[in-house]
Amino acid sequence: MTHGWRMVSIRDIAQTFDGPHATPRSSKSSLSDGPIFLGISSLDNGRIDLTQSPRISETDYAHWTRRVTPQPGDVVFSYETRLGEAAIVPDGVRCCLGRRMALMRPDEDLVDPRFLLYSYLGPEFQEVIRKQTVQGSTVDRVMLTDFPNFPMKLPPLEQQRAIAATLGALDDKIESNRHLAATIWAFLAAEYDRLAVQAPIATLGSVLQLAYGKSLPANVRRPGPVPVLGSNGITGWHDEALIDGPAIVVGRKGSVGEIYWSHDKCWPIDTTFHVQTLDGLPLLAAYFALQQAGLKTMNSDSAIPGLNREAALSVSLPVPIESSREWAASRQELVDLAIQRATRSLPSWY
To answer: Does domain 6-155 fall into CATH 3.40.50.2020?
Structure first.
């Protein structure tokens, strides 16, 4: 172990709280202001995405903060579905924990909050999470009763602060790159929209197929560079791929109709579909066609949200098969740049 570092348990350096096991009615409405409701969709690569965080009423806020009121410096994380995701509550944000969310309240005499976040996101603690993951019938989870006992390496406080400052500067650059990547994807979407205006109407099933993903329980995954994709995005890593990249993965159970582009080979699990194009449709065009298909509204199961494959493939919409071929080929460098800029890899200091 690095000189001066020691092994601690989470309970030694932070308190752990979870949120209510339900969703307030107003979080599904169109409130324009009010406290922030932090759900699993609020977590985005180590940051809180306020655009994906609905507002709730003051009445609901009083109820949803009975157990704990998040405060600046708390590290919030998901203990179900999007395992391994975490972020720090920033200054000036009034918020409450949503379903499947918990927080660590660090003892700042022992641990720097930013260091705690980066340690959580780092490869060693991610491996702890992977080993402690319990696979359920619909979602994977870590047991919050066990979480305070999870081990973490901790250097002296001044060293923590120095490491956090260095990684914070890198993280800011990464965020800038991710913003550029999002701008590129928005530009490509606008170009595709213009192509689709005069395109013939086709069903999705005439231009692509939706193949089922394959189960890969957490306890049989082996450490490796291949992302394991569920309906909420990356749920872990493995040393073997199910399909080559680039690939499109569509949420089938859980987050219905969510669409993900994987530039590299990956393993889509059984809560997803992966896309196989037909009739010469470029994969890039298929990605934007799926974005326009309204799949997120096609929930066929009120208990466990699900996307019916036949219903999805029957959707009719404009698909510019011919004109999109030359366009997709000419935009490959832009796609490569977007992927390169969006790639986020925190260095290991272990």
So the answer is: no
How many other C-beta atoms are found inside a 10 Å radius of the C-beta of residue 166?
13
Going by C-beta distance under 8 Å and a sequence separation of 6 or more, which residues neighbour residue 111? 13, 14, 154, 157, 160
Please name the residues in contact with 187: beta carbons below 8 A apart, sequence gap of 6 or more.
Answer: 334
Q: Cα separation of 227 and 245, whole Å? A: 11
How many CA atoms does the CB half-sphere of 163 hold within 13 Å? 23
- 144-159 pLDDT per residue, tens: 999 999 999 999 999 9
Give me the pLDDT at residue 29, please: 46
Q: Dihedral through CA 67, CA 72, CA 74, CA 80, nearest 10?
A: 70
Cis peptide before 246 (omega within 30 of 0): yes
Q: For residue 146, what pLDDT is reported?
A: 96
Does domain 177-342 correspond to CATH entry 3.90.220.20? yes
Three-state helix/strand/coil letters over 251-304 = ECECCCCCEEEECCCEEECCCEEEEEECCCCCHHHHHHHHHHCCHHHCECCCCC
What are the C-alpha distances in Å from 310 to residues 8, 58, 209?
51, 42, 10
- Region of residue 131 (left: phi > 0; alpha: psi -120 to 50; beta: else): alpha
For 80-98, letters b (16+ CB in 10 Å) and e give bbbbbbbbbbeeeeebbbb
For the chain, give every domain's residue range.
6-155, 177-342
CA gap 91, 73 in Å, rounded: 8
The label of the residue with tokens 């022992």 reads 110
- Rounded to an integer, the average pLDDT of 159-175 is 86
Sheet with 101-106: list strands edge to edge.
14-18, 101-106, 75-78, 86-88
